[in-house]
Write a sequence for this structure.
């Protein structure tokens, strides 16, 4: 259920703000979104996996708080990230 190293590296490169940036809000939200999407696929076949569902809920809440922080700090970066990840309609 973890994302592969290649996929993680590609996600970081796509959303980083500088050459050595691996921890900005954009990168963290993008990585969480990838993990959330993988877990969502997992739940289509494993409907009763409540232990993983708890982890999914924690990841969604973490992403939600990071997005709220980013929106309050820099709304342009927030809008750009939302558009790239296709999170809201």
């Amino acid at each position: 259920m973890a994302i592969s190293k290649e996929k993680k590296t590609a996600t970081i490169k796509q959303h980083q703000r500088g050459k050595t940036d691996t921890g900005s809000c954009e990168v963290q939200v993008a990585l969480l979104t990838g993990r959330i999407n993988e877990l969502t696929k997992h739940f289509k076949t494993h409907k009763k996996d409540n232990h993983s569902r708890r982890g999914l809920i924690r990841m969604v809440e973490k992403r939600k708080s990071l997005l709220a922080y980013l929106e309050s700090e820099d709304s342009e970066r927030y809008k750009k990230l939302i558009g790239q990840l296709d999170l809201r309609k």
